[in-house]
Amino acid sequence: MFIGRPLALIMVRQALADNAATVLLGPRQVGKSTLARMIAAERPHSVYLDLELDQDLRKLDDAAAYLRSTAGRLTVIDEVHRTPQLFATLRSLIDERRRAGHKVGEFLLLGSASLDLVQHSAETLAGRVTYIELQPVGPQDGAGANIGLDRLWLRGGFPDSLLARDDGASLRWRKAFIRSYLQRDVPMFAPRMPSVTIGRLWTMLAHGQGTLLNTARLAQALAVSAPMAGRYIDLLVDLLLVRRLAPWSGNLGKRLVRSPKLYVRDCGLVHALLDIGTGDQLLGHPVVGASWEGLAIEALIDAAGPHAQFSFYRTAAGAEIDLVIERGGRVAFAIEIKRSTAPKVEQGFYWGANDIGAARRIVVTPGGDRYPLRDGAEVMPLLQAIEEVIPGDGA
After folding, report:
1. What's the CATH fold of domain 139-389?
2. Banded model confidence at residue 311, pLDDT cuts 50, 70, 90
């Protein structure tokens, strides 16, 4: 079975039409290469280089000469973070081609880590590159492939996990994925950080899915200093495996919570880290509510697009919003996430929505009916909420 990613395809095509180079970011095995090969197949005589292959890496021994030979064709460079020195060459080639009148969109760069890749490209390709993040398969693309929401929730959105022949095979794939990151990627991106400790932290974050960051407590459990624990968290964030959701930062004269929330970004990895292999095990586990919340938050953030800002809202007085989406300096959505199809909405959500002046107030459920609540709030299933937050033209 093939899972289409139509929105991602549209975004990459548009970026290539508007920019000299496009960087497609995402964790390993998320589908970047599949998407890039689809794009390359649309362009005659495209070139695809996978820098994990020695023969492709050797082609870039004289990168300037080789890439000059591909002028006028789309050149895809996979795992580009393996050759950070390449970015300076790309800059000079892009400028050279601009002076010669070549069209934009000749380079599509793929990488598995945000910090390492973006730092190098931002320093050398400023004004020449745009960034797109490819997340694991979400509910909308899953529905397009006739994959039920419960299956996606249990297995997560990595295609090989989602399409495994059964739940047991899916869990084994995810556990192997986690081992691979700890044994291969952590040493590559952070050679001085102990993989075993990173693995313990990853599991701790899964247990505390969606809770406020308490660096001192994590550091004590890991027997490291608080600054070191912070650097370990930074690594998992930079590898696009953990999301640090910031608290809303407007000035309302209220006592706002200032610590971020941490989420393991793929719910299937949450379950693998906690050894949850079946739907029954998930429904009986204490993480069930936080796991569903994480799935919904990732899906909504992905749908809202790269120009939106995201946070949560919580005050000492009890006002609380799970996800705040801002566009153009205004609060577009206040979103409460519930696992029940007949949710009971706490007063704190209404207080919070009023505090920040949210234009729309949505209570997200797994399914069921769509219906209005008081104060302009509305209950709707996740798939409908995703449609609501997708930006319109010019948003």
Report:
1. Arc Repressor Mutant, subunit A (1.10.10)
2. very high
